[in-house]
Design goal:
The protein has 115 residues and is mainly beta. The protein has two helices and eleven strands, in the order ββαββββββββαβ. The protein has a single domain, classed as Beta Barrel (Cyclophilin). The mean pLDDT is 95.
């Protein structure tokens, strides 16, 4: 599924994978989030409900541009730098090729819509 992130007025295209968590996330859209920085690697924001982790691997190695759900906290993570392997992290999708992740590092507001 294709989605669009509007990050402080800049549009970034992304694609969700076919996981149960990604389908649950898509069902929440549209969303407007006010993310906080976490470990100078990702922007995080609480979601209105927890996503399914059925069939999800026990951990993930996030890369810059990944969109993920961190199950232990129930939040969305938007990675602008490569992260560390994290138990409970479920990759939902990623920014489309060529997308600039530097805007995520400073994002005060992110609107996420289906395309």
């Amino acid at each position: 599924m294709n989605i669009r992130l509007t990050v402080d007025g800049r549009v970034i295209e992304a694609t969700l994978n076919g996981s149960a968590a990604a389908r649950d996330f898509a069902a929440l859209l549209p969303l407007t989030l006010d993310p906080d920085d976490f470990q100078q690697t990702e922007r995080i924001a609480d979601l209105p409900k927890r996503l399914s982790t059925a069939d999800a691997p026990p951990a993930a190695d996030p890369n810059a541009g990944d969109l993920a759900f961190y199950a232990p906290w129930g939040n969305l993570a938007l990675f602008y730098r490569d992260g560390h392997r994290s138990p409970g992290l479920v990759i939902l999708g990623r920014l489309d090729r060529g997308a600039d992740t530097t805007h995520l590092a400073r994002a005060d507001q992110v609107r996420i819509d289906t395309v």
